[in-house]
């Protein structure tokens, strides 16, 4: 079996996608989960992009132990200095230097000649190497570059000290055969390429990112760059869970394996979706709600007779919790702990007490508590404790043909605030009341509501995107069996993030 490294760029390329921005504590939480998942390299961000990006890369470098932590840098000394300053305290730091090599990018974006690009690669990869032993070089838009020139660029990068050569299909234009041919060509034409790792980075504009990545592995790539849930620029990057499960399920065909703990896939996917508010399509491979559901009678009959008739993977292999042990209002802390352990959550005593209190409150509203309910409780924990605003209570008076009013009570930094407002609906009235009591101007950019558990008493998850008028937007999520409450919680959660970012 060949060994394939997983380079996760959820926190860099993924975070660049609209609506997927994360704050510092969310990035650290996600990075820790990526470490549990077993990725080899975490691309933590683009350190020069903003002081906040720098801070996040630095914090992730300090927070993780076993993974390599990379920061992206253009071919400039300023970028490389910032990248190094941000990752240098990591146990395994990496600088990821990139420069475009396609004619269209060089002429219109960089306004550089081929000679200038080559010289810049030699100089800047060498400069990065003088700081850090682990250097990755990416030729942006490699798949649309002249292959002979591309080979010269990679040769220059290896000569200057690059230890990984990354081949991006930046605009998601290539087909699997073309990507495989390009890897084969580079292996034959880049001097000393056998001394370094070949990596691939595919975007999904034509829905081919995973197929292209797998084709490159067959042609000799040993590192795949990907993101959880496939988030990323435009149509996204290659999805980590799809690449990993394709290699695992079809080990017979690819003869390759990763060090990913696949049982952590589902948790990683859920955590990211909860942080960003980006919902996962039900039919998404591996982590979609329907990925392991059998609807038709013929399929159900086959699966009951022998699961392998229609199942090529086990849902437990990707860590999907089984809804077998159902809890209720008489269940004790011990039963809850056992359920949590079976779902892969090991909580410290204090955390368990907190989840247990929430569990009891939920059990008063819901007859039976399933694995999905408990998972929702765990994800919801993320939104409490350090928040400056906490929802205490709300009273709604709503109906057709009458003014909708809402009275909301919030605790802000130990002070109780209360306000009543009229709106076009119960949510409009509640959001107005909150804005008035906090004296802030917030615009609501989008709102969605989704049942995250089953049944009439399902838990509803609300996701709001709000902005502060200066181009910054924040995602808030909230959970409750009462959809008005989950919506108000989501709004307050978004405002807490806004307050934290501007503090
Ligand atoms: O898509 C791309 O080309 C990139 C590079 C910076 C690796 O994200
Ligand atoms: Zn990219």
Short description:
This protein is α/β, with parallel strands linked by helices and 503 residues long. The chain has 18 helices and 16 strands.
**Outline, from the CA principal axes?**
globular
Q: How do the strands line up in the largest sheet?
A: 2-3-4-5-6-7-8-9
Q: What is the tally of beta strands?
A: 16
Which hetero ligands occur in this complex?
3-methyl-2-oxobutanoic acid, zinc ion
> Between the first and last Cα atoms, what is the distance in angstroms?
51 Å
Assess the beta-strand content as a share of residues. 15-25%
Largest sheet: 8 strands, parallel, barrel
CATH architecture field of the largest domain: Alpha-Beta Barrel
Structure classification: alpha/beta
Structure characterization notes:
- The chain is of the alpha/beta class and 503 residues long.
- It has 3 domains: 275 residues, TIM Barrel (Alpha-Beta Barrel); 58 residues; 114 residues, Alpha-isopropylmalate synthase LeuA, regulatory domain (Double Stranded RNA Binding Domain, 2-Layer Sandwich), CATH 3.30.160.
- It is 42% helix and 20% strand.
- It has 18 helices and 16 strands.
- The strands form 4 sheets. The chain has an 8-stranded parallel barrel, surrounded by 8 helices. A 3-stranded antiparallel β-sheet has the order 11-12-13. The protein has a 3-stranded antiparallel β-sheet with strand order 14-15-16.
- A hairpin with a 6-residue loop joins β11 and β12.
- α8 packs parallel to α9.
- The chain starts with a strand and ends with a helix.
- The chain binds 3-methyl-2-oxobutanoic acid and zinc ion.
- The site of zinc ion has 6 residues, from loops.
């Amino acid at each position: 079996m060949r060994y394939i490294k997983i380079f996760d760029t959820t926190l860099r390329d993924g975070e660049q996608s609209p609506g997927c921005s994360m704050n510092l504590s969310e990035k650290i939480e996600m990075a820790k989960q990526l470490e549990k998942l077993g990725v080899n390299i975490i691309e933590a961000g683009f350190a020069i992009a903003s002081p906040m990006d720098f801070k996040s890369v630095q914090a992730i470098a300090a927070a993780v132990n076993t993974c390599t932590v990379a920061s992206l840098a253009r071919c400039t000394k300023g970028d490389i200095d910032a990248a190094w300053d941000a990752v240098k305290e990591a146990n395994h730091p990496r600088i990821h230097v990139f420069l475009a090599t396609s004619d269209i990018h060089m002429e219109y974006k960089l306004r550089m000649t081929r000679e200038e690009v080559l010289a810049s690669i030699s100089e800047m990869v060498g400069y990065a190497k003088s700081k850090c032993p682990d250097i990755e070089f990416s030729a942006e838009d490699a798949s649309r570059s002249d292959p002979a020139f591309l080979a010269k660029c990679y040769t220059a990068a290896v000569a200057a000290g690059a230890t990984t050569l990354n081949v991006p299909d930046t605009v998601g234009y290539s087909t699997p055969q073309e990507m495989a041919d390009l890897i084969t060509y580079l292996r034959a034409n880049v001097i000393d390429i056998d001394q370094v790792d070949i990596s691939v980075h595919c975007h999904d504009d034509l829905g081919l990112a995973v197929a292209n990545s797998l084709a490159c592995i067959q042609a000799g790539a040993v590192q795949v760059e990907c993101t959880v849930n496939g988030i990323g620029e435009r149509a996204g990057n290659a999805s980590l869970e799809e690449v990993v499960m394709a290699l695992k399920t079809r080990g017979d065909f690819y003869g390759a394996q990763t060090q990913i703990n696949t049982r952590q896939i589902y948790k990683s996917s859920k955590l990211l979706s909860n942080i960003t508010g980006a919902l996962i399509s039900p039919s998404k491979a591996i982590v979609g709600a329907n990925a392991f559901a059998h609807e038709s009678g013929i399929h159900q009959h086959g699966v009951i007779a022998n699961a392998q008739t229609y199942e090529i993977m086990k849902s437990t292999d990707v860590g999907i919790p089984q809804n077998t042990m159902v809890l209720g209002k008489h269940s004790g802390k011990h039963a809850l702990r056992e359920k949590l352990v079976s779902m892969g959550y090991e909580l410290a005593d204090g955390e368990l007490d907190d989840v247990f209190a929430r569990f009891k409150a939920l059990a008063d509203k819901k007859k039976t508590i399933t694995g999905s309910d408990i998972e929702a409780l765990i994800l919801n924990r993320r939104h409490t404790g350090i928040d400056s605003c906490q929802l205490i209570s709300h009273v709604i008076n709503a109906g057709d043909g009458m003014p909708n009013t809402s009275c909301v009570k919030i605790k802000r930094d130990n002070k109780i605030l209360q306000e009543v407002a009229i709106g076009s609906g119960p949510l409009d009235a509640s959001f107005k009341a909150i804005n008035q009591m906090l004296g802030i101007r917030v615009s609501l950019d989008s709102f969605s509501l989704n049942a995250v558990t089953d049944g009439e008493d399902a838990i509803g998850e609300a996701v709001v995107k709000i902005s502060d008028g200066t181009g910054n937007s924040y995602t808030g999520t909230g959970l409750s069996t009462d959809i008005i409450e989950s919506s108000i919680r989501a709004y307050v959660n978004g405002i807490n993030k806004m307050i934290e970012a501007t503090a």
